[in-house]
Amino acid sequence: MNRHSAAAVFLAASVAAWCGCGASSARSGSSGDRVQAVPDESVADPYGDPVVYPGDPFEGFPVVNELTYPGEPVTGAVEPPAAGSWAVQVAACAAEEDAVRLAGIASAATGLVGRIDFEGSWWKVRLGSYESREDAGEGLETARSHGYGDAWIVELLP
User: Fold this and answer.
1) Containing H/E element for 11?
2) Is the residue at 113 inside a domain?
């Protein structure tokens, strides 16, 4: 037998031996008969999932058919404020669309009337309309308690 034939026989024997390896490989029993490997039930599933769910995993949860959003954009014209009136400002946005959306969300969350005013180059998002700075303090506390911690009181320009 030459070197090439011996290498081919060695390669064929190696491939045959390697093909029998793995989780489903056969192993020799005590009598020399080949037996099918059985998975060890004591080994935990690495993903932590049961093999079969015992029932519906979503049982008891409500069916969600649609999503509702916390607020809709403010629509309709708002009368300009009277001189000396006050409001609570929660944000200033560069884009009108962002200000309209945020005013709707903030209004729905706090229950205060939302409005936007354009001053300089900013769209200002404001809540409520109050006769005095002291009255606006209640609106400020409402806004802050609903997540607008940076809100502040502003005097509205005529």
Assistant:
1) helix 3-19
2) yes
77-106, pLDDT tens digit by residue? 445 555 458 999 999 999 999 999 999 999
Beta bridge partners of 126: 89, 115
For residue 143, being part of any structural domain is answered with: yes
Q: Is residue 153 scored above 80 in pLDDT?
A: yes
Pairing type for strands 122-130 and 114-119 reads antiparallel
Two tokens, residue 3: 């070197």
Identify residue 143 by its one-letter amino acid code.
Answer: A
Q: Which residue has the tokens 């946005």?
A: 93
Structural domain that includes position 136 = 86-155
Q: How far is CA 4 from CA 10, 16, 47, 75, 106, in A?
A: 10, 18, 47, 87, 82
Domain count, the chain: 1
The dihedral formed by the CA atoms of 66, 71, 74 and 75, expressed in degrees to the nearest 10: 20
